[in-house]
Each structure stands twice: as C-alpha cells, then as structure tokens.
Automatic annotation (TrEMBL):
Protein's recorded name: Yip1 domain-containing protein
Lineage of producing organism: Bacteria, Pseudomonadati, Pseudomonadota, Alphaproteobacteria, Rhodobacterales
Main location: membrane
Protein topology in the membrane: Multi-pass membrane protein
Region (Disordered): 1-23
Pfam families per UniProt: Yip1
Native source organism of the sequence: Albimonas pacifica
Amino acid sequence: MAYVQSLPPDYESPTEPEDDIGPATMSGRVWEAWLDMQGSTRRLISENPSEGRLLFYLILSDLVFFLSWTIKGVLAPTSAAAAMMPIYMSGVLLVGFLMRTAAMYVLAAAAFAACRLAGGQGSWRDTRAAVFWGALVSAPFGLLAALVAVGMRHGEHIWPAMADPVYAMPPYYIGLVPFLWFIAAGLAAVHGMRRVGWIFLVLSTGTVVLSILGVYLSA
C-alpha cells in the first residue's frame, strides 16, 4: 500500500499566489492604476515606499514628459504649433524639464494643504506618493498625444484643415486631463475623500488660473 502523507486542513501550498501581492512589473502596476487608481494608490501606500522610490517615479515621469514635448514641440510640430511656439523651444523644454521636479513638489505641497483644509487625513509623504504616482501613470497619455500630433503633422498635406489651430493644438494640451484626473484620484484615496470630481475640478481651475497668469506675465 502506498503511503500517503496527511496534511493539516489549513495547509496552503507555498507556490499558491496570494491575492494581495499585486503586479510585480512596472507595466502591470501602471495598468492596474489605469483600471483602479485609488486601489493602486492605496497599495502603494501600504508598501511604505521610500523617498528614493517616490523620486524615481517623479523623474521617470519627467523623462516621458520631456520626450513627448520634444516630439511634438521640436522634432515634428504641426504648422500651427510651430507658428505659436518660440523658436528656442528646445531651450524652453530643457528648462521646463529641470524645473518640473521642483514644480511637482510645490504641487504636492499645495494639494496637501488644500486636502487638509477640506478635512483630509493623509500625510505629507502619502500626498507626495499620490501626486508622483499619478504623474507617472498619466505620462503615457502625453506620449500618445505626441504621436497623434506627429500624425497630424504628416497629414496636413492630405487634409489641410489639420493645420487649423482648432484641430492642431488640442494634442498639445489634452494630456493635462489624465494628468489631473489620476492625481485627483490618488489624492482622494490618500485623504479618504469620496468624490474625485471635486478634487479634479479644483486642480483644473488652479491650472487654468496659473496658465492665464503665466500668459499675462509673459505679455
């Protein structure tokens, strides 16, 4: 008779995957965030990420930001964009890349203060995690917008209407929508707020006000 080893009833195989491990790769984590940004942010917070890891996420989003704007602002701008952008666009992009990291810390600080005033419970570190992770998760949409701008640039000779600023300029700014939305969802998860829409509205309003102020100061 073959000997059969009995196992305790609560035994679990060591090879059995656990449900709370989450995606192991960066692409898997980003895909998870696209489907459920709040859940993805809560998982990130539960991992107690170091400051170096958060800074890595931010710098990685900076690189994608720089790549997307280099494509649509320097390498293959539409004719309407080329007419509206300065001829020293490459220098502007370089300065913008260097300043973006500091600007993201300022954005995180402003978001932390605003959420706290609204009754949020998240910490300063968790707020940075939500903002930096949201910036990275939304970065591929900016790159996709850059590729759309390149396609429009090459399609201008087929459909001249693409040269009209009404059609040519949206790919340069549409990436702000997922950027603000994913950050808003992350902040809602961190600070225990139920409605993402209100945070998104505040971020959008602040962006519009700063844009108008920038245009006024540069005039």
